Amino acid sequence: MPAKVSYNREILKWARTSARVSLEKVGEGYSITAVHLVLKASVPGADDATFQACAAKAKANCPVSKLFNTNITLDASLVP
Question: In whole angstroms, what is the distance from residue 56 CA to residue 59 CA?
Fold first, then answer.
């Protein structure tokens, strides 16, 4: 059974996300072959396990990510 994510009223103070996109020549054109996301966020009162679960859930359900037929990785870190 998947873990249940509890939000416990944590409020996002700030978040910064960057993406490194791998673009490679495939046949006559180019294709995005990988995307690596780096998320740093401040959520006072949140524990890392809850933050990681929320970040993974957001990545899995992101409509933009679903458009890409590629490997998408995520490094998420909680900062003060």
Answer: 5
Predicted TM-score (pTM) of this structure: 0.78
Contacts of 22 (CB under 8 A, 6+ apart): 32, 33, 34, 35
pLDDT at 3 over 50: no
pLDDT, tens digit, 9 for 90 and up, residues 25-75: 999 999 999 999 999 999 988 899 989 999 999 999 989 888 888 899 999
> Which fold, 14-78?
GMP Synthetase; Chain A, domain 3 (3.30.300)
**Would you list the domain boundaries of the chain?**
14-78
Which alpha helices (DSSP H) does 1-80 contain, by range?
A: 48-61, 63-67
Quick check: 13 and 43 in contact, CB under 8 A? yes
